Amino acid sequence: MCGYLPCDKQDCTHSEAHRAACEARTVMRWPRAQRQEYYGRVTKARGEPACRRLTADVSAEYRKTTEEP
């Protein structure tokens, strides 16, 4: 366990990458209208580049669920 600060471990749950992946998986499961509303709030609070990253992350997470093993 690395504690409250990110460490060098690939699976560190205190990292920004882990937070972003969790957010993307959560948003991915929402209905389209709810996602669109959230993207608007993200744009307003974090800026357009952050919203683009989030939508790309959501798309990447969705592709992971539809890929064949």
How would you characterize this protein structure?
The chain is an all-alpha fold. Helices cover 68% and strands 0% of the residues. The protein has 3 helices and no strands. It has helices at 16-28, 32-46, 48-66. Helix 1 (16-28) packs across helix 3 (48-66). The longest helix is centred in the last third of the chain and has 19 residues, at 48-66. It is globular. The protein starts with 15 loop residues before the first helix and ends with a helix. The mean pLDDT is 87.
Summed up:
The chain has 69 residues and is mainly alpha-helical.
Distance between the termini: 30 Å
Whole-number average pLDDT?
87
Largest sheet: none
Number of helices: 3
Beta fraction? under 5%
Computed Rg: 14 Å
E-strand count: 0
Specify the structural class: mainly alpha
Q: Which percent bin holds the helix content?
A: 55-70%
Identify the overall geometry: globular
Which helices and strands appear, and what pairs or packs with what?
Elements: H1 16-28, H2 32-46, H3 48-66
Helix pairs in contact: 1-3, 2-3
Offer a few descriptive terms.
69 residues; mainly alpha; 3 helices; globular
